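Input for the complex:
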Amino acid sequence: MKTRVRYAPSPTGLQHIGGVRTALFNYFFAKASGGEFFLRIEDTDQSRYDDRAVEDIYETLAWLGIELDEGPREGGEFGPYVQSQRVELYKTHSQKLVNDDKAYACFCSSEDLERMREQQTADGGASTGYDRRCRDLDPNVAAGRIASGEKHVIRFKGALLGETMVNDILLGEVAWPNKNINPDPVILKSDGFPTYHLAHVVDDHFMQTSHVLRGQEWLPSAPLHVQIFEAFAWQAPIYCHLSMIMGSDGHKLSKRHGSTSAQDFRLAGYLPEAIINYITLLGWSFDGERELFEKQDLEKLFTLEKLSKSPASFDYQKLDWFNAHYLRSLDHERLCHLIVPEMQKAGLFAGNLTEHAILLSQALPIARDRLHKLSDAPIVLGFLFAEPDLSKPELIVPKKQNTADVCAILEKAQTAFVGFLDRSDEQNEAHFHQLAQDWGLKLGQLLMPLRLVLTGTSASPPLMPSIRLLGLEKTTRRLAKAIQTLKDLVK
RNA sequence: GUCUCCUUCGUCUAGUGGUUAGGACAGCGGGUUUUCAUCCCGCCAACAGGGGUUCGACUCCCCUAGGAGAUGCCA
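Predicted:
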């Protein structure tokens, strides 16, 4: 049988990183096994629907470079791929189940159910849940009530005795006592839309899904799904319930842990390469040694066998390491292209864009090793485009030096730039080395104040090439300003 | 409460009866270096606990504990 897998998000918000991982695993599994990967939009909850979310799903997939074989916009022979466009199908099939005595109409209101739960809790009952009070209503009576327009839902008639076997490729065979399954869940809501349970079964049957890789939060309803497949006399797909992604405190990853949506990471300056690599390693491994994988590697190497059962907590530091790695290995043109918007965002590229871009391109070689995220670029290279604050002595005088000394050093240093541009960086280094010696200074005592004045930070790219990029004019001007600040203070 | 799943360094993981329990991130120390990074070298650090099975358990079984998820006319 051909491998056919899908990503089936519900468009209710931004794509969560957990969902992204599910998409990635499905995609890689399809690629690695020569199968097909499609997108299905699960928009059966009208109250939570948000069409910006559909846009976000597509943007995220495009950002990651994941191509769909079929989907709402791509089309395909098993469409439509949006559940709200398939409601007739669900209705017909829930009716079929009713006709076969495998489902029934329930007339309980939300309030009824609420009261039921309260009562069960008050009684200290072993379990809460629907008490199946409409299960044995006379079908003819029920049909009459429906005909008269009474509001109702359709519930699945779950097996009461015995057990249901869920065959999970990761977890193995999970035998589930039927009494422990959520009692007779709603499969068709009163608004005529299906719940996930029905929609999943119907769609994955007709869309010929071979494997369902989904989050482990679905495991408790898996036996139900198996029963619904059986009720239709359809073959269920092979399930694979993926472990979840946790935050640093062991709880489900959420906003308070940091970024959680793909968009958050994109905006924060992460590369898709890093996200793909890191996320995939959250719950999957190759051989325990190799850690660097690009998309095209995973498209060949991914296997279900190396999936991990236990939940994984999200480590932002390790993600940063991957991101820095990919940032360093990016080709010059692309890196430049990605950094321009970051500089613009930071307000450093006002004026002649082309001129700025050229300077940025020249500066990249000395900056790229210092970047962990794209958004670090304005911090590392900002000094080339905007003058640092030279009005505050504490930003000019290194911690271990005193103001008067630094002032004197800077004054002397003003003369050090004659012929600077004619010398190589190495020659300039030697030049400053010599000067420091002549002036009875350690190299750092000369260079650190210069670094502070010219770059505005004690952690800058190498000084000689930085000065070259800055240009002598700005160098001299910054020096003069700093000296003035210090002089005002000494006076 | 009930049900289900999970449990190797702080974190991600390798390991499928016999290993000095391996790798990576982080941390720490050192080297390179004008700073910060990069890079290189080294160190620290784990089989949740208790019973079995076995000549031998991280590996198999049971129990306990802990964690998570589910328990919706949300997915």
